[in-house]
Design goal:
Helix 4 packs antiparallel against helix 5. This protein has a two-stranded antiparallel ribbon. Helices cover 74% and strands 4% of the residues. With 155 residues, the chain is mainly alpha-helical. It has one domain.
Length: 155
Amino acid sequence: MNMRAKAGLAGGVLLALACATSAEPVVYPAKGQSAAQQQRDDGECYGWARGNTGIDPAAVAAQPAPASGPAVGGGERVRGAARGALGGAAIGAIAGNTGKGAAIGAVSGTMVGGHRARQSQTAQQQGAQQAKQDQINTFYRAYGACMEGRGYTVK
């Protein structure tokens, strides 16, 4: 495989990675560096950034997403049922049927608690995704600084 084909293949791999993580910088040889020199600098800066930040973007991107099963965590449904039962019992006492009011309140409270559990789960998933993206961005800031120091334009 000739150098031009290798450079094209490397460019294709970089393009695929750029699509996968939008934070990856685009590097342009501003001082006439050859493709071979850019490839060497790229590898050295990648290694330097990984060692300097302690972050490997490939490993971070490969981390599994948080579980997205049913939202059963933190006890939101139980607390909702208890609150609903108390409120329903109070309203039922006024209407003359405490037991029926408590039952209706418990069901309603369970539904509200389930909604809160789903909101909490969504917030946790978004936080985990943002943390992964922050790590990748930190790595690429270090990588870009290294490449700029070697005479490349980084955007």
